[in-house]
Amino acid sequence: MEVSDVPAVPEWLPGHLDADGVESLYPPQAAAVEAGVTEGESLVASIPTASGKTLIATLAMLSAVKRGGKALYIVPLRALASEKKAEFEQFEQYGVDVGVSTGNYDSDGEWLAKKDIIVATSEKVDSLVRNGAPWLAQLDCVVADEVHLVDDPTRGPTLEVTLAKLRSRNPGLQIVALSATIGNAGELADWLDAELVDSSWRPIDLRKGVHFGQALHFDDGTQEQLSVQGNEKPTAAIVRDTLRDTVEDGETVEEGGSTLVFVNSRRNAEAAARRLANVVSPELDGDELAALADVADEIRDVSDTETSDDLADAVEKGAAFHHAGLSPDHRELVEAAFRDRLVKCVCATPTLAAGVNTPSRRVVVRDWRRYSGDAGGMQPLSVLEVHQMMGRAGRPGMDPYGEALLLASSHDELDELFERYVWADPDPVESKLAAEPAMRTHLLATVASGFADSRETLLSFLDGTLYAAQTDEQGRLERVVDDMLAYLERNDFIERSRDGDTERLTATNLGHTVSRLYLDPMSAATIIDGIADADDPSALGLYHLVSRTPDMYQLYLRSGEREQYTQVAYDHETELLGTQPSEFEESRFEDWLAALKTAKLLDDWASETDEDRITDRYGVGPGDIRGKVDTAEWLLGAAESLAGERGFGNVQAIREAKKRVQYGVRQELIDLADVRNVGRKRARRLYEAGIESRDQLRNADKSVVLAALRGRERTAETVLEHAGHPNPEMTDVTPDPDAEPVVATDTSGSSESAEENDQSSLGDF
DNA sequence: GATGTAAATATTTAGACAGCATGTC
DNA sequence: CTAAATATTTACATC
């Protein structure tokens, strides 16, 4: 089908796509159009990665916009939200407005109401529904990207409930659900009353195979010999093989390409990158090495940690690792260098399989089992997960085909891998809505936002979910609902009242607050219990409290740390809030200690401890600090609201603890750090120079400020301007030598990087 | 006694959404 | 109820 034959899309679209080199539709796209996506028909598209899902969504959304409507694009990751926004902004020249809404990057409220296309995470949409964003009523088309995630035990129910709510509020709504290839796409289509496009068609061929011995065995029955040097590992041999040009009759028929290696732990990723760097580097030319050295320098500038150094060392040699312990800057640098074909080999944990688009000539799924605490050992990855990783092979328009390989160490394993992953039918997707944590959260939200006002209406609302469509065990749902309603009532989140014959459910004020704050009710109960009797809680106590909440993911206690933190608990006994579980309650006590470890990390951060000391002390990456700090900030904000709601007298203490994590400063710097452009480092220097508050900064001697900020005029000017100084101008001001910072931190480095390190990398968001 | 290497033993283990109020060089 | 790769320590040989 030609683009010009697609009905109901804007007139300018065929021309625009033509200029992009798109003339005709891929078969699944054509099928979607025939099913009526551009005419408001709902659709479930279960098709492989990179087979043109985005265009299907685009056609649907633009046709809705053309009819004067509004479209919402739901993504699972914040990183994807910005990627999609950038992609849709190409249509702004035709008057299509695009907006984004996620937790940290928000263009909220009124402003979104004017946009034609809005990109948001599923949690954000859920939150908007709860808080009754008026523009939701104007939606005509909702795209749900990566719908197979309804299978996810923690985040799946949110997507499921959100879709159900949007549909029940707006019956004519068009839903376009995009999914990886799954086993039960038909079931999803039935649930959403949608047409179905279920196809395994791909624009570029994907050859799946298994490596065994010295050969690659492919799914088309062919084999390829691999030249192995010495006793090198299979992954090394594959990476080198991928890198070399394929030469036939003295002519290069195919240029060398890059490899993406998936492993099962961060440490493995780093170790593999270190080893493979030595395989890649001999194959690089001078230009490439120079460009890589530049990237390595940028990486070192991001933060002064071991992770940063190790990553830069690998990148210098053309390899890299990628996992969630990296700071967002690190991740982006690695992704960009890999896309630019500068870095030839990236060793990654699953972050890269689900995240932004980073295709590669070859993909190696090195580890197909992963440790799982509750399963008590190594568990095989799901078919879907492995397929998602494999799907990263082959760059559209650049490679003739992609190759994805698993590694076998025995003949039996070779057979098993073919059986389990290469030939395997995709797994079906199953709703996890009946899990208790999901239920207590969504039941409260459903009652609080007025979707249901009784047990009956609640159950009938739940009837519109995928869970109801899938289960034949009717009693289970009712049982969980009753349990969770009892829990919510016990904790004063909902109330039951009699209205004639029927029992009515209403959310209490507290319940409304909890739902609005987007807290797990159990987190709210924990927090309230902890702060209720704490007149003057310490920062550490509050950090521990929010770290114990189910909304904070746990750090892991390493060997010897059990004793260490038991001692810490003893030392700070009086500060810790709530009741301490008995030491004999094995797992509860361990969780409590793990939360204490998290609390200490936050406390260190809020005591101006250096980033590299924290990463070292707690065995975490820079990205983990960011994550913890972020979550703590949110939960303390929630705690502040809850304390206000309950009329507790400790609101101020909570706010201060929040500001301290937020800025990473001690008590005395909060006021200074509140000034824009002043982070933990600058605030400390100003303080040392005798400027101890915002007021003092406003009226400060300019030469003192300039010296404290290490003679950087531009910085000093902006800082003074934001502090409200009457005349921030720095011309002819000379730094006061008495006010210069005494710390001998590297003045040797380039001024650029010194300046970047000056403001902590966690400062801006 | 310093150094190097192999073998035994110990340790560790993926990912990531959200409130609110305002605006980064 | 299930593992495996890497890190660390120890044992031992060599200079």
From TrEMBL:
Keywords assigned: ATP-binding, DNA damage, DNA repair, DNA-binding, Helicase, Hydrolase, Isomerase, Nucleotide-binding
Pfam families: DEAD, Helicase_C, Helicase_dom4_arc, HHH_5, HTH_61
Residues binding ATP: Q29
Keyword DNA repair: yes
Tree of life domain: Archaea
E.C. code: 5.6.2.4
A GO biological-process term: DNA repair
Reactions catalysed, as given in the entry: ATP + H2O = ADP + phosphate + H(+); Couples ATP hydrolysis with the unwinding of duplex DNA by translocating in the 3'-5' direction
Helicase C-terminal domain sequence ranges: 238-445
Domain Helicase ATP-binding: 34-200
Region (Disordered): 719-765
Coiled coil: none
Enzyme category, top tier: isomerase
GO molecular-function terms, A-Z: 3'-5' DNA helicase activity; ATP binding; DNA binding; hydrolase activity, acting on acid anhydrides, in phosphorus-containing anhydrides
Physiological role: DNA-dependent ATPase and 3'-5' DNA helicase that may be involved in repair of stalled replication forks.
Family, per entry: Belongs to the helicase family. Hel308 subfamily.
Subunit structure: Monomer.
Protein name per UniProt: ATP-dependent DNA helicase Hel308
Gene assigned in the entry: hel308
